[in-house]
Every structure is written in structure tokens, then in C-alpha cells.
Predict the 3D structure of the following.
Amino acid sequence: MSAVAKLVSGTHFGEDLDHHSKCVPDTNFEARLSHLDWLESEAIHIMREVVAETRNPALLFSGGKDSIVMLRVAQKAFRPDRFPFPLLHIDTEHNFPEVTAFRDARAAELGERLIVRSVGESIRAGRVKLRRPDESRNVHQTVTLLDAVKEFEFDALFGGARRDEEKARAKERILSHRDEFGQWDPRNQRPELWSLYNARLAPGEHLRVFPLSNWTELDIWQYIEREGLAVPRIYYAHDREVVERNGLLAPVTELTPPRPGETVVTRRVRFRTVGDITCTCPVASNAGNTDAIIAETATATVTERGATRMDDQTSDASMELRKREGYF
Amino acid sequence: MSQALNLIAGDVLRFTTAGSVDDGKSTLIGRLLLDAKGLLEDQLAAVARTTARRGDTGMDLSLFTDGLTLEREQGITIDVAYRYFATPRRRFIIADNPGHEQYTRNMVTGSSTADVSVILVDATRGISQQTRRHAAVASLLAIPRVVVAVNKMDQVGWDRAVFEKIAADFAGVAQSLGIRGVKLIPLSALEGDMVVTRGDRLDWYTGPTLLEVLETADAGQPSGHLRFPVQLVSRSRFGKGEEHRGYMGRVESGTIRVGDTVVAWPLGLEARVADIVTLDGTLRAASAGRSITVVLDRQVDVARGDLLSHAHDAPSVVRRFDARLTWLDREPLAQGRRYWLKHGTQTVRASIETLHSRLDLTTLKPVSDAATLAFNDIGTARIVTGRALIADTYAHNRATGSFILIDEATNHTVAGGMISRLEHG
Ligand SMILES: Nc1nc2c(ncn2[C@@H]2O[C@H](COP(=O)(O)OP(=O)(O)O)[C@@H](O)[C@H]2O)c(=O)[nH]1
């Protein structure tokens, strides 16, 4: 067992700490909130504030685990009412089919409106020009996203980004103010004191709102487990054809055939993130259920983006640059 | 119950770190993350590579907290960075404040939600002007616990006398600022002594390590008087009649129970709590920090911006009050100009009627003939609002005693405010 595993699976704690709310903790209300309850309550508070203070918000829902958690938080915040916002997906058309199917099923199950705008449309309409046909469409989501913001006159977009993902995110506010080009200016962020969020906007501007800012990858999985949430099955270990490339396992699909000289092998893998097929890699894993994923995450030796994203490997600062250009 | 949920139990503690440039703050955070096993291997590998490129040997712990490209280009840290780690006992959120003098604004931001403030002092240099400023901000924002990490003890031969001199000096600062219960810890971020493990070179020190203090300090979620600011009114009906509306909000302090008689402010209407609703079922009670929907037993006129309390220990309903202001914008305070004031779930018009004083951060004494407050200044002012606020003093309640001011023209958040005196009638 690694040192980390020892640290987090020790004997210091046990059943005495009631931190699962399947049984509603109404007998123990003087107790401190467990970390999951705390994170959940904070996210609910943020969503309610932004709904109260903006005219026309939307929630970015991709079918990925962070946005699945956001939908759960939205249920906690607004049920029995319907959500006071539609769901919006910027589809690269390069998504894993399991994830797209999951996205549609989940939206239908909740009875909420899902708007899909696709990068493919933007390309066909000439709004996006690819340098190469097989170029990752990930960065081009920005154009489609901003077009959707204009089309529907959204003034706030809830996103599932977390500060533990990446160092540009680590410095971003919970309410991230964007100009009419969607750009983030790290030097001019509004100070965010206590839980007093400044949602005031000039015409044409909008907010990106990150209710899960303070969650880590481990929290996300612990919450999925606690709430019994379904996630697309490619998050769990399965056999998949991959090639080894730059130390990552690249999935072999129609969109991403092996390159000359590469050998296709079948490996037991799972996805830690489920973005654009052309730049998302699975990790070797035997974790077949949420419990096992949590154990792996707690002892993980590689960060989420480092393990799975080819687009962030190129430069230490690529997320920061993309954000400054209007990315999520 | 699932084993996995138990991997990390406990609550959340938020702390902030502050120090002058080169006091070793980045090294200390790196050390905490590393020794608390919060660091992941690819970050380790990247750091090892960068260190090698620079021709150094070993590992420069401070590189773990390296920031934005913009910051590297300009050679200064621009903004608060949030970092996360966990031990089996607790989850930690660090608001890592840049040490640069210009950035009191960021320190205020990072400190506003902190349960603990960790102030670094370089043992070879002792208490500095920056230490005073950091302590002043901790005191201003009433951070419940201040910890002074006396770093680089290795460079002063682990000398107890050096530590005790700094402790005595800081006691003076704490006294003039009214900070109580300060904990001082001698440590070496570089070598690791007294950060997570005790080491064997500071035997004369018998107090807790830094991590022990962080693992046992009181975390947020104040008890005390019930304060429930209403964020939204649900469109659904709860129960039989038209009158059963649901009020959504978060309990900011105290506990609300089914059956309690509560008062809805500012109108002062009484009702009883019929139900506390969550997606997971109804609760008999909810305490500070929890987001809920409250159902009252009769129809009362309650909207966003209103607040529920118990009848005893009620908040004040005021339009005029004194407050400490920390000015956060490049455009200085303009007396008589209108600002938006956001307090709890309420946004009202406000103006600064009188500027009483500005705090001189060198002497820590108020200067009374101040004409304005400029970027990063701290002062005291009398504020008047267009509509009544339902408020407490900040000393009494961090949530209902705090507000921000927003510039009408630029929409910038220009000030953070802490109510110091309420004017009744
Ligand atoms: N000898 C010694 N040097 C330290 C210690 N902590 C930090 N340093 C060194 O002090 C310098 C500044 O540290 P850094 O963490 O970058 O300071 P920051 O500007 O406060 O973040 C670096 O060269 C560190 O290696 C310590 O405990 N002992």
C-alpha cells in the first residue's frame, strides 16, 4: 500500500462520523456539516444567488461527471420547481456516443429542456475554420458557445469547472466576468468577499459561474457514490482498443485511427474525463464501480488533466490562454 | 455504508496564508501539500524537470504553487490561488494570498471566508511592516484564529531566543490590534520541521505542529442567533393551501427548527415553521451552513432580501450605520456618490455620508482628517442606505455584518464593508 493509501484509509475514523445524507441527519443537526454537505450547500447557494440576480441563465450540461453533479445540485436547489434555466450543450460532434446518449436520457428523465448547438454547424456555416480536418475541435467550442450566448441572450452560464483541475482555474472567481468576446481578464477580476457575489453586467457581457469551484475530483466521485448518481459507463473499467502515444493511452475510434507504425492493443481502461474523442485519453484501470474509482482517485499519482488531455500537454499555460480567449 | 465514502471524513477548514515576498510561503504550502500527501506525481515530475533545467539540484518546493503565465512574465503573483488537500481528519481549502504589498485587496478577498490566518515571519528578519499589515487584515476581517509561522528556523540555528524575541514582538502587534489567542510555531518549511512532522531539532518547543493546529481549529458554521436570508421564493405550493410558500435560502448562523416561531424582517411578521424541505426529505432542524427551503404555517409577505430570525435575539433594521471599509478599486472613494450596496441577499442604494478616518498601516492608528480612501486603504465611514438593511454588527455576525459596495458606472466591486455600529431609530 502506498503512503497515500495509508493516510487516507487509516483507522482514525469510522462510522461515528455521519456524513451520508441518505438518512437525513435531522437527529444530529448541531454537528458540523460534513465536507460533502458543505460543498453541496455552497453550490446550491451560488446557483440560487445567480438565478435571483440574472435575467437568463443556462446550465452547461455535457453528460460528463462534473455536469452530472451540477444537475444534482440544481435538483437540490430548485425542486419541486422546474429548473429556472435550460440545459445547454456545445457539441463538438466528436463525443463518445455513450456520453451523448446519456446526456439526452438524463435531460429527458429530469423533464428539463436541453439545447444543443454544435461545432460542426459552426464549421459548416463557415464560422469556424479548421487548420486540418482532424484538428481537435475542443478550442473551437468557444465560437459556438459565444454564438449560443448571443442567440439566446444568456447572461450567465453555469459550468462544472473545478479549481483543482488546473492552475488558471485555481485563480478564477466563482463568478467569472466575461466581456462581449467572452474573454477572461485575470488581472481585473472582481474581488469576491464572503459569499457576496457581484452579478452586475453591462449589455453584451455575461457571467461564467462555477458552483463546483471548491470541489476536487475525489469529492465529485464521493458525491456520485453518496447520491447514487448514474454516469456514462465509459467512466468504469472496460476493455478498449488503444495505442500508446506520448505516454498516454489514445483510444482507437473511427475518428482517431492508429497512426502509421502504431500497434493497437486491447487494455482494461476507464475515462477520467469524457471530452472530445480526439483529445481525451483513458487511463489503465480495473475500477468497475464508483467505490473502486474513489479508492483509485484518493491514491492517484497523476492529476486528472495530466492523465487524460492531449490538448493541455503542449504547453503549461494552454488553459490560461484558452480562457483568456473566451473558453469555458 | 460504502468504504470509499469514508476515505476522507470530517469537515472543511478554510485557511489563508500571507507573508512578504521570500518569507517562504510557497515553500511552506508546497511542504504542507507534499507531506500531507496532497501532491500528485506528475506535478512532482514537472517540478523536478524545471528545477533541473535551472541547474539546481533537489526540488524547489515553491514551484508547486507557481501561477499564471502573466504572473511569471511580470515576476509577481497577481491573485489569490485556491488550493486543496485532505488528511483523514479534514478537507482543507487554502486561499494563497500573494505577498506583494499592492495586493491588500486580494488578501481581503482570501481572508473574508477564512477560519484561520497563517502569517509567515522570516526568523532571520523578524516582524516586518508586511507582518503588521497582514495582522491588521486578519483583525479587520475577524478571522477566528491567527497562527504565526516563524519560518527558516534552520537559518538561525534552531535558536529558541530568536523565536521568543519574535513572539514578544508579535504580542505587541496583536495587542494593539486586539487579536487574541494567537498561536506561534517555530518551523522550517524547507526542512519540514514542525510543519507536518515534528523533526528533532526544535525539542524545546512543546506546542502543536502547523498541521495539528489546522486539523483541530474551529471551522466556520457559527452557532449563535438564527439568521436565514431568503434567496428565492419557490413557485410550488407546499401542503394544502395557497398560503404554504417555500422560502429558499441558506442558514447563515444558528439553528432553525420545525415548530419555531420566527419573525420575517423587515416587516416584523410572525409565523411558525411548518416544514423544512430538502430533496432528501424533510428535516426537523437545520443549522448554519445548510441550504434548505423553509415553509411557514401562514401567508406572510416575504420576498428575496428578507430575513428570518427568532423573536428574541432579533437583528437590527437600519438605514444608517458605521462601517470599516477596505477600498478595493483604483478609483478612490467619492463621498456623496451613490453606490450599490449588496448585503446578504439584498441590494440597495447607498452613499458614504461621512468618512471618519483612515487607518495608518505603519502605526496601526486611525488618521482622522482623511479626505478619501484610495486603492488598498482601510477606513471607517458612516453609510446611509436607500432602503433598510436587516443587519448585525460584524463582530456579532460575519454574514449579516458584512457587505460590498459596487460602482454604478463600472460595476466593479469597490469596497468590502464590516458594520461596526448600528444607528437605531
Ligand atoms: N533555509 C531556509 N530557506 C527557506 C525556508 N523556507 C523557504 N526558504 C527559501 O526562501 C526562498 C523564498 O522562498 P519562497 O517559498 O519562494 O518564498 P515566498 O516568496 O514567500 O513564496 C527560497 O529560496 C526558499 O528555498 C526555510 O525554512 N529555511
